[in-house]
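Narrative summary of target 7.
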Amino acid sequence: MKGCVAENTKLFPFNIIFFSASAPGFPLWISILIALVFIPLGSCEKQPSPPLSPEEALNSFVFADGELEIELVASEPLIRDPVAIRFDEGGRLWVVEMLGFMADIEGSGELDPTGRVSVLFDDDQDGRMDRSVVFMDSLVLPRAIAIVKGGALIAENIPLWFAGDMDGDFKADSKILIDSTYGGLGMPEHSANGLWRGMDNWLYNAKSKYRYKTIDGKWVKEETEFRGQWGIAHDNMGRLFYNYNWSQLHADLVPPNSLQNNKHHTPSSGTDHGLTLERKIFPVRSNTAVNRGYIPGTLDDQGRLLEFASACGPLIYRGDALPSAYSGDAFICEPTANLIRQNNVLAEGFMLRAEGVYADQEFLASNDERFRPVSLASGPDGALYVVDMYKGIIQHGPYMTPYLKEVSLERMLDKPIHMGRIWRIKTKGRSRPAIPDLEKASTMEVINLLGHPNGWTRDMAQRLLVDREEPASIPVLRDQLVEGNPLARLHALWTLEGLGYTEPGAYLAALNDNVPAVSQAAIRRLMVLSREHSEVRKELEEFVHTTYDTAYPLVQMQLVLAGKELSEDTAIWIAEKFLNKYGQLPVARDVVLSSLGDREATLLTRLLSQPGWRKYDQNREIILEMLASAIVNKGSSDEVLELFAQLEHVQDSTSKWINAALANGMLIANPSKDGSPLILDSIPSLFNKDNSSAPGEQALVSSLRDRFTWPGKPETAPVQHKNTVKTDPKILSAGRQKFLNLCASCHGTQGEGMPRFAPPLQHSEWVTGEDHKLAMVLLHGMEGPIRVNGKNYGIPDILPEMPSFSTLQNEDIAAIATYIRNSWGNAAGEVSPGRVGQIRFRTQGKITPWTQAELDTVTFRAN
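Modeled conformation, tokenized:
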């Protein structure tokens, strides 16, 4: 027996089962029945999958590295349905228990207040928890916790609470509402979670665009970039990492909120950066109890899940209980497939990427179907901790298909309930160090821990120092900025920030630190202080001029981001330098645009005055277009009229690409919320001239005329150009930005295609045809050869394959698809984010690019 999917299923036509469920009037149960007919009854695992005791479960684990071992920390009945953990300063383990999640196959009683937060104690210090105290109960689907001064922040189904413990008995005495809308939808896998303390002293969240912090004794909620789905973490530099169930690892390349400083520009890179396209996984057991497990391509011939379906709970390992080679690696939970993935995180300048450590196996996998790793944590002993919900049913009720329900019941995965384990992973034979009680440590002792080899210890030391607010700690922290090891220097700087220390001297001294992360943090702090201290700006200016050319790329990037706080001459000077060196990187372009404020026109003039910038280069074209768009978004009539004047200045044929770039930027701008034309003080002279140019240029001038108005302009209806479909200009603008950053390098800025790279998108039936095929190509890539508009393209005319954009959000893919379907003479309907999500779900298991032959057989109707 080879599991649930038989060999002959591979020969069954792909589209019959794959897409029939979405056809109007085609019941899902018929689709499932068809699938089951082609899956031999004898090959499908239908025997029960009984729970294992913790001792039995220990024998189920398979490590890729034989030098590691796993130990039990806690299990039922001490804990039940754990989803998140945190250690406090005394080494006690706080556990969030979501008892209301899928208590039966129907998800009954989900909103009953059965959840709780417990505190576990290791009384004999042997590494195994001995007892628990319920800190707070009667909670609805609690999902996250942060230990804070005086108690804990607890994220319930929707509200966020501060639970106070005034007498130190580990039982909540008060419950104060911090945010009534924290959870958003309230659905476990699609609501805010995390409450992760960043190095900058803010609490960050996944599936959320908000962060939290106490300022002057009050909790403050502030908007930030939207990040991830379940779980969030940071590395030794403080960069945030997160993921989505379909995409295993994302990160911020820039500090939080640093790309939000220019209201005229919307960044499309820098945060939510997908670090790897790797999706294939290697379970050690069959995973038939997954949604759409009956669809060919979801499971292999042994019934094992082929790709990530529920990636969650990322953690960057910063401890010292595993070999040093593990430091900085990213670990990802995959509860559906009963495994944990390990990735190397690789830095190249200010860019990040990741790659799996093992080619054909996982860091940790289990042959126990109920092993459900949902989150990871660092511990005071430097070990890697695994939160195992240990549950048969891990899929939330609203997303459970009839197939999954049937398989789950057959395998008795619905019972028993309310189990759960916490595991610890460390080097084999490593004795457990004594766990100090930092709660009782003196301030000097805590300061000396800022450079400890265990990241948990450093983070806790920083938090305690900020919470204690002892003025006597400040001189010692300043000394640490000079005398400490690199990690101590970085944490000391952020500890001073958390204490509200505003004297510039310490931060100015840290500017010249030989560790880029410390210098970057100093610049970030000085950017804030320069607004109140004029001497800080002067010092920053001098630092820029004396060190920029020899600085690390990370420091160069941060200096450009500081441009708004610098003089215009300095800011424009380094922006130009940065673009000349890194302008081929989307994040570099967004860094520059985000740093400009109201100086876009100045930079544009500066660039066009340089002879090198009049020579065509695709990256220059993109930058000029972005600048023109930001100028129009600013809404200054004088600057827009100067843009029009620039269109008339360029006459030689070798520089006409500049006109096209500026005009395109003006067309995709959105200066008004309601889409109304921008009001100019006078008519651009371009519209007063007899336009005898080529038809394409005439259409461009006509389109520009529709985007602006001026005193005395005749009230005529906008010209409806041939082959146009009415689409939301905001979607088109967002799609254009994403297209330029991700697609133009192969397909050309105007979708014209590029020899040796990619075929044209203009008049391509793959673009304007059935929307599901376009979405499938964007999600999974495509392998040549391919026929476009009657012409065959293959090697060497184009690259062997187009890469996947599976790391992008559904909204981003939809925007790109909508844009290219309505540009360059193409005219087709919008593609919605929901449609992309639908395709993504139905094509799970596809880990190789599509071929034209495959796509030619696919049929997929709208719901």
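The chain has 26 helices and 33 strands.
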